[in-house]
Amino acid sequence: MKNKRAPASGGVRTVALAILAALLVVVSGAVQAAAGAAVSFNYKDALSKSIMFLEAQRSGKLPPNNRIKWRGDSGMEDGKLAHVDLTGGYYDAGDNVKYGLPLAFTVTTLAWTALAFKPELQAAGELNNVHAAIRWGTDYFLKCAAKKNHMYVQVGDPNLDHQCWVRPENMNTPRTLYEIDDKTPGTEIAAETAAALAASSLVFRDTDKGYSRRLLNKAKLLYQFGRSHMKTYDGECPFYCSYSGYNDELLWAATWLYMATKRQAYADFISHEAISSSVAEFSWDLKYPGAQVLLADLNMTANGGLQSFKTQADNFVCAVLPDTPFHQVFITPGGMIHLRDGANTQYVTGTAFLFVVYSDILLRSGQQVMCGSQPIPPARLKEFAKQQIDYLLGANPRGRSYVVGFGVNPPTQPHHRGASTPVLKPGTVVNCGMSFGDWFAPDRPNPNELTGAIMGGPDGNDEFVDKRNASSCTEPCTYINSLSIGPLAALAVRGNDLVASQ
């Protein structure tokens, strides 16, 4: 697994690429608009399968209703080195490490999805599955943060893990523990986990009040820990380096805590102390646009009213849409957002998610996006969101799906240990030296279908290699799928135009 994010300034590629993107706008926009108008997919099927991928990423003792039959219990001794129980949680991608920062972002965005798309998920019969996916993460976080001012943030030595191509059920690589405390702080991870727990507390408030309170109380403590010990934790580098710093996570966490508590202390921090910025990316490392969309809905401002979060949310839209004078993000000839190779589709699903959520907010409040003097109606955001999701499902230059087990010519070789390794008997000892030759190198379909996994995706020229060793194309990640569920639910229930039901 490669680093899922490379350094960038505000998520923007080079000026040269931006100019190239501008030249391609007219042609690719027209092609995709025509394609989007003619193409429709079984969004309900895609939605169901996208959730199933998250279930394939579960660590720990699987429940009796486990739907991924080739998966079994794994990581059952996680935490043993410190005499604690750290079983559960998720493997983030194609390896067997549990990374705290992307895992927390996955849960935060799942919780936001459950809140923003509750009617659609109910209508599609998937709300309970999303709740179960959230709880699988929050149960794990409660274990990780059992002690005040201390949190376990990673399980597994990534370097040694990457030297053995073995399914998690049979791994024998060290389950090294990584932690943050008052001597080794980690504001990003503490704040992101606080956001995940606060958002999740809202999800369970009506169905499990006691559990909701536990989540919220832990969120408050983690947020305070992150604020009182402000420092970046680099222990997850080089695999997950926080290039954006921790100010976005603090704003993000304070926003979710304000939504969950309505306490003035969080509002004061947001309005007077928090640092915000206009950027062109929403991802596990950069949360500003997500917080800005939420705060725009709350009509909140920063720095005593001098800074409008709606303006910043608008700036995100203006930087992404190819038909605005402030367009910055590179769009491939086929119409896909492309910020960088390696899990690029997280920006595709992340943008689609925010665009649908923000367009719903704008419709409710009777507002539009303003790109300078150019108004952008909410319908344009939904149209672009649908285009991005449809690209992944098959409306692309290759006419193929980038979702395993869905659509036309779906990928067959995800860069994923569990899917690419045959089911072995419990206790089978794997020769790590031979494992790559046995299961990674062969050019053949994976023996186990990783249903619903969205691939890292094509490159900036819409080129895609369906090979296990082409990890930038074929490695899936939990946070790619978590961000796809909301738009897919909206498309499944509202219809192709994504117009919210009244």
UniProtKB/TrEMBL annotation:
Q: Which InterPro entries match?
A: 6-hairpin_glycosidase_sf, 6hp_glycosidase-like_sf, Glyco_hydro_9, Glyco_hydro_9_His_AS
Q: What positions does UniProt annotate as the active site of this protein?
A: 415
Keywords from UniProt, A to Z, are: Carbohydrate metabolism, Cellulose degradation, Glycosidase, Hydrolase, Polysaccharide degradation, Signal
**UniProt KW Nucleotide-binding keyword:** no
**Official protein name in the record:** Endoglucanase
Report the source organism. Answer: Brachypodium distachyon
Signal peptide residues on this chain, from the entry's feature table: 1-29
- Matches recorded under Gene3D superfamilies: 1.50.10.10
Q: Does the keyword ATP-binding apply?
A: no
Q: Which domain of life is it from?
A: Eukaryota
Similarity remark: Belongs to the glycosyl hydrolase 9 (cellulase E) family.
MF terms (GO), sorted A to Z: cellulase activity
Single GO biological process annotation from the record:
cellulose catabolic process
Q: Which taxonomic lineage is given here? A: Eukaryota, Viridiplantae, Streptophyta, Embryophyta, Tracheophyta
Catalysed reaction(s)?
A: Endohydrolysis of (1->4)-beta-D-glucosidic linkages in cellulose, lichenin and cereal beta-D-glucans
Which residues does the UniProt record annotate as the domain Glycoside hydrolase family? 43-486
Q: Which Pfam families match?
A: Glyco_hydro_9 (PF00759)
The EC number of this protein is 3.2.1.4
